[in-house]
């Protein structure tokens, strides 16, 4: 996992340094700084993800592609959704006219 910190977005809440002090520090004004190149060790993944999720201004982002953990079925129904579409041929059914 690799992360990026956008210092221009940071408002200095300091939650990242609290959650993952090995990856974030605070400068003299209280704004976050990334320690290292953003590469996160597997053992620190949970702490860094907590810092990422807790950031109120979303200044921390995860780089790279995430692979889905579970396969998703986006259309669970076998019914054709276009069948219920409002068209000119069924406008009386839907209660609209031109």
Task: Tell me the layout of helices and strands.
Elements: E1 2-5, H1 15-19, E2 24-26, E3 32-34, H2 45-54, E4 60-63, H3 91-94
Antiparallel strand pairs: 1-4, 2-3
Cofactor: [3Fe-4S] cluster
Keywords: 3Fe-4S, Electron transport, Iron, Iron-sulfur, Metal-binding, Transport
GO molecular function: 3 iron, 4 sulfur cluster binding; metal ion binding
Structural notes for this entry:
The chain is α+β, with helices and mostly antiparallel strands and 98 residues long. The chain has a domain at 2-63: Alpha-Beta Plaits (2-Layer Sandwich). The protein is built from 3 helices and 4 strands, in the order E-H-E-E-H-E-H. The chain has helices spanning 15-19, 45-54, 91-94, and strands spanning 2-5, 24-26, 32-34, 60-63. The strands form 2 sheets. Strands 1-4 form a two-stranded antiparallel sheet. Strand 2 and strand 3 form a beta hairpin. The longest helix is centred in the middle third of the chain and has 10 residues, at 45-54. The radius of gyration is 23 Å and the shape is elongated. The chain starts with a strand and ends with a helix. 14% of the residues are buried. The mean pLDDT is 83. InterPro entries: Fe-S_cluster_ET (IPR051269). One of its GO terms (molecular function) is metal ion binding. This is Ferredoxin-1. Its cofactor is [3Fe-4S] cluster. It comes from Mycobacterium basiliense.
């Amino acid at each position: 996992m690799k992360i990026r910190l956008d210092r221009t977005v940071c408002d200095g809440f300091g939650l990242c340094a609290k959650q993952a002090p090995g990856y974030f520090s605070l400068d003299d004004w209280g704004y976050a700084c990334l320690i290292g190149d953003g590469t996160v060790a597997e053992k620190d993944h949970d702490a860094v993800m907590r810092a990422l999720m807790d950031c109120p201004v979303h200044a921390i982002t995860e780089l790279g592609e995430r692979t889905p953990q579970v396969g998703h079925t986006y259309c669970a129904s076998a019914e054709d959704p276009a069948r219920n579409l409002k068209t000119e041929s069924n406008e009386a059914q839907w209660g609209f006219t031109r």
